[in-house]
Design brief:
The protein is of the alpha+beta class and about 400 residues long. It is built from twelve helices and 13 strands.
């Protein structure tokens, strides 16, 4: 089996899309646009921070992503595998490096050329594996920090261990496994293959175009190791189009030339032929997407939580003041510092407030304040005074009932 590189209309289009996806994969950590910070438990996405306690946002996003996978697979089959999956993109780059190594060593003596080409290829793959590992680490720690630590050989224990393990795993996959993982072990590919059906995008064999000449070119170029002539809906097919290009190249050299008997087809699908499965997937994907956007739009940049602190009354016996204490927890998820102010409603004018004189909460940080309210006992006519706290943060106020 040989794998196509940069020949054929569908192959060239796929490789260009792969390079675009690879650029996105590299630029996101390079410009710190997407990063999950394990130390702080926060997701940084395009200038916004999502904290782990915001479970509704994370859950809705994951559900939307899961249903989106199903929707794309239902319409287009396993196209993600061939066009956007980093595993497949790097695997095809590994084939390119093999080709480059053979080209650079072609003038060597025949007895050493094969070994030299393989050695050079493994060296290039090792460099690519380290680069891929660095990009991967950039999704969990700032990439400039990772690069500086690497240059100084000053890696934190988890950073060094994860980096070494991911680089080694990448080298083994790119050097020896490649598409074998996609064929036999990838759960994402299996999920897409189960969801697709007879009206998903597939490669169709058109015998009316002149018939197959039995050259086997389509099977030889298939990176997933299948023969498309044995069926259009084999679960391994990623709709890469390599078989179509190979067929077109062989039949185009005949006298007279003939067009490819392989081509993409949707099986006659149309908007008027939606079944229950398509309706469910479409409605669920749309519903979770709308819910996620609504929750995201209503997200408050500053989260406030107020709870009473119950202390022993013995500590305040003999005092002329009645005292209550509250714990205020403020999480500033915005990109600018916020100053908090507090007041009460329902207490006498003589009530004194303490604990929030310095109400500054830095950007991306959480602070706690112990709020204390004291009222002269002479102004308390009963044992219980209902009142409320009003905490102001930035341009909004939040009211907490108390007693």
């Amino acid at each position: 089996m040989s794998c196509p590189r940069w020949t054929g209309r569908h192959t060239v289009r796929r490789r260009l899309i792969q390079l675009a996806c690879l650029a996105v994969f590299a630029l996101l950590p390079l410009f710190d646009l997407l990063r999950f910070d394990f130390r702080e438990g926060r997701l940084h996405a395009f200038g916004q921070e999502t904290w782990l306690d915001e479970w509704a946002i994370l859950w809705l996003f994951l559900m939307f992503a899961m249903w989106l996978v199903g929707a794309v697979a239902l319409v287009l089959g396993r196209v993600y595998c061939a066009y956007a999956c980093p595993q497949m993109v790097f695997s095809e780059l590994a084939h390119d490096l093999d080709t480059l190594a053979r080209s650079l060593t072609r003038r060597l003596a025949p007895q050493v050329k094969k070994i030299a080409a393989r050695s050079l290829s493994l060296a290039l793959l090792a460099a690519m594996s380290v680069a891929a590992s660095l990009l991967f680490l950039g999704y969990f720690a700032p990439l400039p920090e990772v690069a500086r630590r690497l240059l100084r050989l000053d890696l934190a224990p988890w950073l060094g261990a994860v980096g070494a393990a991911s680089a080694l795993l990448a080298f083994l996959v790119f050097g020896f496994v490649r598409e074998g993982f996609c064929r036999s072990a990838c759960p994402y590919g299996l999920l897409q293959g189960v969801i697709e059906d007879g009206r998903s995008l597939h490669v169709r064999l058109d015998q009316n175009a002149g018939g197959c000449i039995g050259c086997g070119a389509c099977a030889r170029v298939c990176s997933m190791g299948i023969d498309i002539r044995q069926g259009s809906f084999q679960i391994e097919c990623t709709r890469c189009g390599s078989c179509i290009d190979a067929c077109a190249a062989v039949l185009g050299r005949l006298k007279p030339p003939r067009p490819s008997i392989l081509g993409f087809d949707f099986g006659g699908a149309s908007l008027g032929r939606w079944d229950a499965k398509r309706a469910l997937v479409g409605l669920a994907t749309t519903g979770f997407g709308i819910a996620f956007l609504l929750v995201l739009a209503g997200r408050q940049p500053v989260s406030l939580q107020l709870s009473p602190l119950y202390e022993s009354a013995q500590a305040r016996q003999g005092s002329d003041l009645a005292e209550s204490r509250f714990l205020l927890r403020a999480a500033n998820r915005s990109q600018a510092a916020v100053r908090l102010t507090a007041r009460t409603e329902g207490l006498p004018a003589s009530a004194a407030l303490e604990g929030i004189e310095d109400g500054l909460v830095p950007a991306g940080r959480e602070r706690t304040f112990t709020l204390v309210v004291r009222v002269p006992r002479s102004e308390i006519r009963s044992g219980l005074i209902p009142f409320a706290w009003v905490i102001r943060a930035a341009d909004r106020s939040q009211r907490f009932g108390s007693a």
